[in-house]
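Quick one, T. Sequence first:
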Amino acid sequence: MSDESGNPATAPAGSRPATTTPTAGTTAAPGATAAPGAMPAAGPRPEPIRFFGTTWLHRDQGYALRRVAAVTGSFAAVVVSCLVLRFAYEGLALANTGNLVSLLMVVTFAVCSALAFRHTWDSFGKRPDPDRQASLRGLLAIGFVGSLLAYFFRSLTEAPGEKLHRAEYETAREQYEKRTARRTGNPSRKGRRA
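C-alpha cells:
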C-alpha cells in the first residue's frame, strides 16, 4: 500500500525513494528539466516570471520567442484598451453629460495611467510593499493602460522583472555557496581520530 505521495509503504523510514520524481509535498521549478535518474541540483532555484517561467536564467527554451510574444501581446492590449476608452468617451459625448464630466474622465484616466505606469515600472526593479499594493488596487485598475505600457516598454529590453529576479537569484546563490564552503569535509569523521 502506498500513500498519496507515491512512496511505498514497505520502504524503511528515512530512506530515499528510488525515483527522482517530485512527490506531492515538493515543487519543481517550472521549465526546469532534469535528466532521467539524476538528482535535482542543490541550492536556490530561480523564481519563475509570468509568461517566461525560468527561461530568463539562461535565456534558453524559447526565451526570445516569449519576449516577442510579450511585446506584441502587450502592445495589442494597449491598442485595444485605448479603443475601449475611446468608446467610453464617445458614449459620454452621446449622453450629453456636459464638458465637465468628459474633462474629468479624461483627467482621471490620464492621472491614474501615469501613476500606474510609474508603480508598475518601479515594481520591475524592487519588490512592492504588499500593503501598499493592496491599497493601490483601485488606482491600478483604472490606470490599466499605464500598466500595460510599462509592461510593453520593459519587454523591449528584457523579461519584465528579470533584472530583479536575476539579482535576487545571484545573491541567494552566493550566500548558498558561502554556507556550503564553510562545511568542508565530513563532520562525522572529525570525532574519530585513531
